[in-house]
Write a structure and sequence with these properties.
5 helices, 10 strands, alpha+beta, Nucleoside Triphosphate Pyrophosphohydrolase, 3-stranded antiparallel sheet, 2 domains, 23% helix
Length: 222
């Protein structure tokens, strides 16, 4: 690892080739669903700069489409903005080390809208705000739906309601500003684009380059 001011690797690297090595790190906050750490990162030219990083479990979300082409959405209260949002079923990757992202998506689909699906594909992967957090999300398209018994719900989810929208209606609500949740916007528009282009979607075991692991590994060390 080169030291600040020692020269060569940091100063001589061509544009786009610098390694951004971490010279040191400290934990500032360790909470229930996120951890804030500060990394000392070696910049081009030899300077060391602090970068705040929010570690997050990561998440999954599901575009669940029925035989009529409608998608299942939930209207859920979101405390940081103080109102209910219309969203796709989604949840954290917090089910433990043996739960895969696909398993988590299946769990969330059952817990939030009482559905299971027999056909799954990866729709799109998202890095939600890479300027300060490793939070990433995998969106699935779930089809051939089956109804499950009603799940027991708590806290905000006890107040949640389910709404079925046609894809055209959902796209219209995105463009009209009614659907603003970033994950839901991406999922709805990606589904519409895939349908329009006839694109084949990825299998559920497709590599997920930016799947976040730092917080899960931190919790496993406790």
């Amino acid at each position: 690892m080169s030291k600040p001011g020692s020269g060569d690797a940091s100063r001589g690297a061509a544009s786009g080739e610098h390694g951004f090595d971490v010279a040191g790190t400290r934990t500032v906050y360790d909470g229930a669903i996120l951890t804030l750490r500060v990394d000392e990162v070696e910049m081009p030219g030899g300077r060391v700069a602090e970068r705040e990083v929010v570690e997050h479990f990561g998440a999954v979300a599901v575009v669940a489409r029925d035989a009529e082409g409608r998608i299942a959405m939930v209207r859920q209260y979101r405390h940081p903005i103080g109102r209910r949002l219309l969203e796709l079923p989604a949840g954290l990757l917090d089910g433990g080390p043996d739960e895969t992202p696909l398993d988590a998506a299946k769990r969330e689909l059952g817990e939030e809208v009482d559905l299971a699906a027999d056909r799954w594909h990866v729709l799109v992967d998202l890095d939600l705000s890479p300027g300060f957090t490793d939070e990433a999300l995998r969106l699935y398209l779930a089809e051939d739906l089956r109804q499950l018994e009603a799940a027991e719900r708590h806290d905000e989810e006890a107040d949640m309601s389910v709404e079925w929208l046609t894809l055209d209606d959902a796209v219209g609500r995105v463009l009209g500003g009614d659907i603003v949740n970033a994950t839901s916007v991406a999922g709805i528009l990606a589904t519409a684009a895939a349908d329009a282009r006839g694109v084949g979607l990825r299998e559920t075991n497709a590599p997920w380059t930016d799947e976040p692991t730092a917080l899960r590994e931190r919790r496993a060390r406790r």
